[in-house]
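Practice problem 4.
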């Protein structure tokens, strides 16, 4: 070997360099990793969903009668007072009579006039019969007092007088009925859409039920409306609640009285609220990915001062965070540092320059962090996002 080194020094040096490079190339290098320390800090487990505000008491003002609603001059957002007239409704005009209907109406008027004349004549006849019966009673009474006629004849005369009085009264009523029927027949001809009566139409006022603002205008232009047709929506934007639709699996974890935070509503600080009601009925909703989901509405009230959220209105979007669990002093690690190991959880702890696998016991999790109950002490360095190259005892280096 020494002879070769003396005779061929270049070959010997080259061989030594190649051996050194091979050793350097195959020598185990430390795995580059990222680490974080286990710390104690506040931790909260929340359910986050999108919600929207809505007026607690909203009133749909509908048409009380069939008619023509006048044009609504109020706009969305205008303040109204209780009892204020919002709009008026005039009755529908009579239909236009075609030639056949008009001829039939005139014939009915003529028939009503004839019936009135007949009833009048019958009333005259009944009045004459009444006078005759009264005279008959006046003649019979003195004779009955003297005993010249029987008592039966006097009773028969008095009964005839009473019957004639009732007949006259009935005839008078028949005259009144005939007169009203004639008036009704003439009304059909008089009040037609083709004939202007010149009388002002009666208007039914529609009033506001509460003090508030106009939330929606269903019928703005003048036009025909039916009874019960919605015209306006009125409510008080100062009394708001928040409705949030959550998955039914999350709804069973939410309870009335639970704290809720509202983010991304437009202000710098989140608003605070409290859950008032979890509706017992769910509904199906198609997600953005086309998946059918069972959702449940959760209704919450604001507990923050009204001055902080007074600029919110009906239908405004908010991000709701329902606080399921929280603690101010929790030993925690990022959820990205945990991995499954032997039906449990484990992490890689950095001891010196080596990674040591250690089984741990976890508690609450919120998707970003996990509560550590046992296995890790505060201040220890933990590998986050461990790759497949990280193994127990492997030399590591913090990037």
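Answer key:
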């Amino acid at each position: 070997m020494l002879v070769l080194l003396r005779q061929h020094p270049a070959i010997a040096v080259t061989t030594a360099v190649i051996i050194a490079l091979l050793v350097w190339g195959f020598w185990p290098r430390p795995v580059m990793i990222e680490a974080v320390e286990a710390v104690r800090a506040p931790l909260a487990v929340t359910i986050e969903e999108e919600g929207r505000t809505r007026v607690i008491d909203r009133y749909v003002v509908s048409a009380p009668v069939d008619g023509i609603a006048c044009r609504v001059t109020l706009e969305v957002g205008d303040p109204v007072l209780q009892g204020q007239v919002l709009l008026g409704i005039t009755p529908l005009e009579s239909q236009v009579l075609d030639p056949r209907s008009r001829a039939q109406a005139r014939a009915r008027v003529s028939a009503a006039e004839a019936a009135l004349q007949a009833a009048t004549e019958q009333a005259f006849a009944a009045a004459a019969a009444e006078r005759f019966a009264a005279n008959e009673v006046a003649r019979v009474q003195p004779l009955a007092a003297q005993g010249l006629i029987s008592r039966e004849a006097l009773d028969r005369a008095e009964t005839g007088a009473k019957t004639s009085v009732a007949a006259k009264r009935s005839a008078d009523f028949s005259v009144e009925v005939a007169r009203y029927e004639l008036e009704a027949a003439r009304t059909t001809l008089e009040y037609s859409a083709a004939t202007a009566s010149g009388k002002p139409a009666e208007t039914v006022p529609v009033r506001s039920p509460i003090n508030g603002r106009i939330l929606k205008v269903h019928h703005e232009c003048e036009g025909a409306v039916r009874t019960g047709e919605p015209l306006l929506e009125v409510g008080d934007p100062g009394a708001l609640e928040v409705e949030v639709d959550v998955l039914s699996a999350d709804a069973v974890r939410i309870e009335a009285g639970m704290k809720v935070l509202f983010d991304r509503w437009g202000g710098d600080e989140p608003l605070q609220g409290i859950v008032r009601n979890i509706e017992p009925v769910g509904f199906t909703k198609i997600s953005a990915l086309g998946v059918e989901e069972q959702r449940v509405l959760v209704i919450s009230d604001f507990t923050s001062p009204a001055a902080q959220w007074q600029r919110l209105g009906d239908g405004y979007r908010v991000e709701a965070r329902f606080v399921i669990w929280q603690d101010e002093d929790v030993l925690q690690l990022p959820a990205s540092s945990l991995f499954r190991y032997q039906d449990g959880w484990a992490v890689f702890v950095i001891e010196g320059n080596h990674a040591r696998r250690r089984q741990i016991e976890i508690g609450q999790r919120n998707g970003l962090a996990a509560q550590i109950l046992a296995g890790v002490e505060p201040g220890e360095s933990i590998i986050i996002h461990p790759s497949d190259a990280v193994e127990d005892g492997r030399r590591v280096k913090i990037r």
